[in-house]
Amino acid sequence: MASTLLTGCGSSPAPKSEEPVAAKPAEPAVAPELQSAADALLGTEAKVLASGDLAKNGKQQVLVANVVPKTPKDNITGTIVTRAVIAQNENGQWSEVFSRRRTFEECQRLSGHDADRAGERLAAAIRTRSTKGLTLYLTPVKGMDDKHVLPIAVRWNPKTQRYQSLDRTYEHFLSESPSLSNTRSQLK
Question: What's the pTM value of the predicted model, to 2 decimals?
């Protein structure tokens, strides 16, 4: 009431207090064991994007990536990454069970795209289902002439016991070249 009287008497209005700036939400805490595995896989700049029983195979896995900060000109859905790896913990030892390079090499063979060149930066999106586990969608950010590139989807295939690319309906696994070797590698 007093401020109304003062304003009405011709005095200058009280200075407006600045609106508080919304704080950036804190990133979820990552267990030191998972961050240590991430550092070993992709270096100290690696971020843990997801962890848990990602494949619904009863084993702990971690999705790790080198994340590129978004800029205002990036009008891209998803997290921009340069490298992505999924590792699985077996008896206290982390081993790589998925690498985005292998997936893009396989998709290049199937689609004819220069996936290695286009895969320098990827938009990664994650979808988790209670029955099928994690599906990772990877879309090349630059280097593709076609602006309507569909994401490459990857999910754990329980029959082959590894991550495998899905077809364009994202329901069926693509057949793989028999020349592809097992991608498991042990961390030291």
Answer: 0.70
